[in-house]
Structures are given as C-alpha cells and as structure tokens.
Amino acid sequence: MIPARQVWPEEFARRYREAGYWRGETMGEFLRARAAELPESIAVVGGDARWTYAELDQRADALAAGFQRLGLNPGERVIVQLPNRPEFLSVVFGLFRSGLVPVFALPAHRSREIVHFARAAEATAYVIADQHEGFDYRELAEQVRREVDHLREVVVVGDPGRFTPLSSLEGHGTAFTAPEIHPSDVALMQLSGGSTGVSKLIPRTHDDYIYSFRESATICGLTPSSVYLGVLPIAHNFPMSSPGIFGALYAGSTVALSPSPHPETAFPIVERERVTITGMVPPLALVWIQAAARTKHDLSSLEVIQVGGAKLTPEVARRIEPALGARLQQVFGMAEGLVNYTRLDDPDEIVHNTQGRPISPADEILVVDDKGEPVEDGTPGHLLTRGPYTIRAYHAAPEANARAFTPDGYYRTGDIVVRRPDGYLVVHGRATDQINRGGEKVSPEEVEDQLLAHPNVHDAAIVSVEDPYLGERSCAFVIPRGEKPSVGELKKWVRSRGLAAYKVPDQIVFVDAFPETGVGKTSRSALRAAIRRQMMEPGMMPEAGKA
User: Fold this and answer.
1) Per-chain mean pLDDT for the chain
2) Whether 94 contacts 174, CB under 8 Å
3) How far, in Å, are 206, 447, 461 from residue 458 at the CA level?
4) 258 assigned to some structural domain
C-alpha cells in the first residue's frame, strides 16, 4: 500500500504553525473536546435519531474498536458511501479515532467510479447503506468485490445481506487501543472534480482540514445555538467543511440532516429544527426560491443561505434574500483547498457580484494569463493558489501533479477569475468552459446572467459546440417558466442587455431540466454531449432554434 502523504515544505509548515493556523489538533480529538464541553447538547439529528455530543463520541469509540476487531490497521483506506444520515458521522469519527482514512464517495457513484476509487486508494474496506432512493448498494458492493481483490471488508448500515452489519461493530462495548495519530497525518481523502473523466484522490491532513473548517465556522458566525442543515450530499467537500457538518460540530452547533435537498423534504426539517444556516448549489437555490413562495412551512429561523459549488449569477443572487428571508453568502472553493466567502456584513454589491475573498491571510493568490504571467487586478486570468489548507499533491498521481502544481507549489485551479482591488474574486467559470468563438472568448456565466434576467426564464446554461468555421459556437439550454419565450425573443433580449454580438447564443434549446452531477450542480459535460447527439436523438430536446 502506498502511504497517503501530504507534505508542505518545512519553511511553510513552520510558518503556519507559528501563526496559529495549525494547532496540532486531530479529527478525533476535537469531537472528544466538544463532547466534554457540551455532553448533553444535540450534535446530530436525522430520521429518528437525535444524538447528543456524548452519544456521538461514544458511538465513535465503539466503532473504532469494531474496525480494529475487523483487522483494519492504521493508515488503511476505507471507502465511505453513505447518504445523509447520522451513521455517516459515527462511522467517519470511528475511522478517525482508529487511524483509518475515509475516502468519501457520493451516493450517486456507481461501479465504474467505486472500482476506480478502491484501486487508486488501495482500499481495504467499504462502508455502505443497504439501500437508498431505490438503489441496492449491496449489489454494487458485490460487483466491486469481484473486481478489487484487496477490498477485504464490506460494512452495511441496515440489512447487511451477506456482509458485516454496522450494528455488530458498535455493540460490544470494548475499549479500542488508540493508535498514535499525528496532526500532519492524512486524515481523509476527498475526490477531485474529475474534469478529465477520472477523479483524483485529495489527501487532507488533520492540521490543514481542521484549520479550514474552524475558520469557516468563525466567518459564518456559528455558535452552539446554530443549526446547520445538510441538504447536499454531506460527503461532498462543500457541505462537509465550508463550514459544513465538521465546522458546525467544531462550533458546538447542531447538525440536522435531510435525506433529500428538495423543499418538500427539507422545509419541514427547517421548521421543526429551527435551522439557521444551510448550503446549496445554484440550481437548488432556484428551486427553493420558487417553493418558498407557496410553502406553508415556517422558514423564519433561516439566517444564512450559502450558495456555492458553481458560479451564482448576480441575477439569481439578488432573488435569494427576498425569497428566503436569509442573508446570502457566496462560497467559492475547491476540495483541493482554497475557499472564499463573502462576509455576512459585506454590502449587497459585494454579496451579489463576487464570490468572496479567501479564508486566510496566508492564502496566496496569483491570477495569470495563458503564458503564466501575472495580470493586473480587474483582468480575467487563470487562478493559482497556495496556502495553509491547499494541498501540494494528489495521492499517487505523478502525471496529474505535474500538470496541476507549479514547481514552487501553487495549485492550478482551472478557474478563470477576476481579482478586484479589494481582494474579492469574481469567477468567470472553468477554463475548460470558456467558449472560443472565432478567437473571441465568451464567458458562459456572463450570458447566462442576462438570460436569467428574462421574466420567463427559470434557468439557463451555455456550452460550446464544435463548429467547422468558428472553431466553437455557443448553445444555450433554457428551462422556461410561465409562458415560454421564443428563440428570437431571447436573442433579442440578450442583444438589448448590451452584450457584444458574438456573445449572443448561436443556438437556443428549450428543456424541462438539466442533467446534474452527484452533488446537484448542472453537468455541462452532459449538456455538451446532448447537443453533440443532436445532432440529436429524436425527442431528446423538444425544441431548438439556431441562428
């Protein structure tokens, strides 16, 4: 097994420790400390479960002992694929306590992804739910076991079938032998966005990850009276650490878990648990905005609505606070590290039009042109970063590391941004999403924002299409609301908003919904594939217009 490592040069590590960013805490220790301070406070609510901090702490210890009885050793990797339920937390803290390294998979992942994660991580165990949303994960585990020889154990929350029930690991009450865990050890592995089709493994240490969500909790104003609602899949980095479930627990808050992000499931939980903060992706924000206008549920406890995971256009940003009665906070970051927030006391101009500024004064930001030369503030460029919680390498991926990291340790994020003179970032999108139309660069987000301002447009997404003359042309996918506008009307609308003629979509396709990634973001790669097929399978896209 290749050791999981994440190493900062000693000069930087010393700097981060001396500044107090890294405090020598571990994931297992911080929960222990919170349980000692707030033993009877509610830590997590989900389904029929309502666990105090003391109970969560005890369950973590019991599972740590159970994992040891299975013969799992410190440093081994364990894939965790669980939906939003309290056992997610008892499992991962049990793994932290026993020195095991969780590798977080989303509930939407299937055999191709899980087999890849298991091989890349050299995983020896796999923790799943029996079923979720009609899918049987035990059948998936059977398939993965057939393809991955070193995957020794499968642990199941619920009916185990032929595998090991989680309940058998937590029922013995025997103490576990605590291994020596160093704060610089890898605590967990997140997954990269996988823009090349294959996700890479992101090793995060106790030191760097705790710093990220500890400071996030402070920026987001979390206290023991706060209630954080996990509506996105909590295995994703955004709802896990920005401030997410871990930031909420660090602050002594309550974590409430929703099995689905949709308003009919989430709104009753907001009302019942008096939720104060939650995080979502832009498509979900639009759904919540519409549902809030007709709901009978009391959403008045909401104080902060975070939107991240993808660019939030200013047009949608302006709708959120009036519709949901809570302060909007934009979040822009990546599982590899850097996270930016608008602050809760920022003026509306910043909150609506930027994606925030970095967590840390030690976050180093470079914005460069295609040749790697720095550009002036106000000029779009490629975002590079390094800092006390941004990784220096992917796990066991030398070729990817050579592409993603500069020789002096900056991470190439793949994002096109503008840095304003005040340090706030405006995201123009992924470099791979930029459309090169005959040598003119088109930012999809800029045009989408103009389409979203139309009263009969619910959502819009623009992707590139290959063109023999221009190289690429633009195609706008539009979800209408109310009376559907015509293609000509929408093109005229975009022109009237003052955009250059080359930015007007070459083609407009009306759809009922967008394909989504596992965390609910709009999948532009799926849209590009659809328009290439439209070139197209009959009936797939009901109506299109082309210039």
Assistant:
1) 93
2) no
3) 42, 14, 11
4) no
Residue 93: other Cβ atoms inside 10 A: 25
CATH value at residue 506 = 3.30.300.30
Question: Which element (helix H / strand E) includes 494?
Answer: helix 487-496
The dihedral built from the CA positions of residue 527, 529, 532 and 536, taken in this order, carries a sign that is negative
Asked if residue 533 belongs to a domain, the reply is yes
Taking the mean position of all CA atoms in its chain, how far away is CA 10?
A: 30
Taking phi over 0 as left and psi of -120 to 50 as alpha, with beta for the rest, 471 belongs to left
Residue 161: band (very low, low, confident or very high) from pLDDT cuts 50, 70, 90: very high
Query: Domain containing 470: what range?
Result: 434-546
Q: What is the pLDDT of residue 209?
A: 98
Tokens of 247: 């930031």
Would you say residue 545 has pLDDT above 80?
Answer: no
Boundary-marking domain end, from 142, 163, 181 = 181
Q: Are 212 and 197 in contact (CB under 8 A)?
A: no
Average pLDDT estimate for 59-80? 97
Provide the domain count of the chain: 2
Ramachandran class of 316: left when φ > 0, alpha when ψ lies in -120 to 50, beta otherwise: alpha
Helix (H, G, I), strand (E, B) or coil at 527: helix
Domain boundary, last residue among 155, 181, 207: 181
* CA torsion through residues 142, 258, 45, 236, sign: positive
Burial (CB count within 10 angstroms: exposed 0-12, middle 13-18, buried 19+), residue 515? middle
CB contact at 8 A, 358 and 365: yes
Within a 10 A sphere around the Cβ of 290, how many other Cβ atoms?
Answer: 15
Within a domain: 462: yes
- 3-class secondary structure per residue, 23-69: CCCCHHHHHHHHHHHCCCCEEEEECCEEEEHHHHHHHHHHHHHHHHH
Tokens of 216: 């996030």
Q: At 139, which amino acid appears?
A: E
294 φ, ψ (degrees, to nearest 5) = -125, 5
**Which residues, listed in sequence order, are joined to residue 45 by a DSSP beta bridge?**
50, 256
Burial of 416 (C-beta count, 10 Å sphere; 0-12/13-18/19+): buried
| The two structure tokens encoding residue 257 | 């878990």
- Report yes or no on 217 lying in a domain: no
Cα–Cα distance, 195 to 217 (Å, whole number): 29
Please tell me the predicted confidence (pLDDT) of residue 534.
Answer: 60
What average pLDDT does the segment 247-262 reach?
A: 98
> Which CATH number belongs to the domain containing residue 117 in this structure?
3.40.50.980
